[in-house]
Structure formats: C-alpha cells, structure tokens
Give the backbone structure.
Amino acid sequence: MLELYGLLAGIIDPICPSFADHWSEDQEKVYPYVEIKIPNALPNNSFSDNNLLEVDIWDDKATDIREIEGITDAIHKALNRLQYGDSSMYISINRNTPYRLGIPDPIVHIQRRQLRYVCTVYEK
C-alpha cells in the first residue's frame, strides 16, 4: 500500500502539495492542499484488490472557485483511466460513481472538492 501512496503523491504533488490521510497537525495549514485517502479495499478476484481512492482538495479563496476547480480538473485528468505497471504491481485507476463532489465546510471561506476513484491493484 505504501507503494500506491507513493505513486499517487508523485502524480499529485506537481499539481498541488499532498498528504496521506490528513494534514500534518504539527504544521500550519497552507492552502491549497490535497489529502489522499484509501479508506476501503475489497478483494476483486484472486489476483487483485479494488481500493476506494478519495482525493480531497482544499482551498481558502472564499467565493473564487477558479483555483480549486483548476486543481480538481488537473488531478482528474492525471488520475482517470491511469494504468501503471512496474516489477511489483500493476494499477488501473478509474472514476467511481459519483466521482466529483462539492463538500460544504463549516468554515465559510474554505472550499473543498472530493474526487473518488476505484483503484484496482494487481500485485506480482
């Protein structure tokens, strides 16, 4: 699973700084940022697992949605239908249904989007 998080961070970090699971509590928050989560894994067959991948994008631009929407679009373009293989695994990432959500935040000026994918991992 660490290899999968590393691959995802390598894809997302050039677009926006990312963190596994949540923002580090010992650092002051700097917006925008992305949280990468894999909350569930289900066996697909005897050769692979389906992992639910959630990508949370956070920004603090109040009513200006251009930045968060641009980041969300760029991440979706990079991840949807991604196929990757190396000596230890093969990965296929496809959008889930629903795949793009606007998540309200109790702090009025914070914007949040969530992308959802099914990440099928075949370990060699």
Summary: The helical segments are 2-12, 66-79.
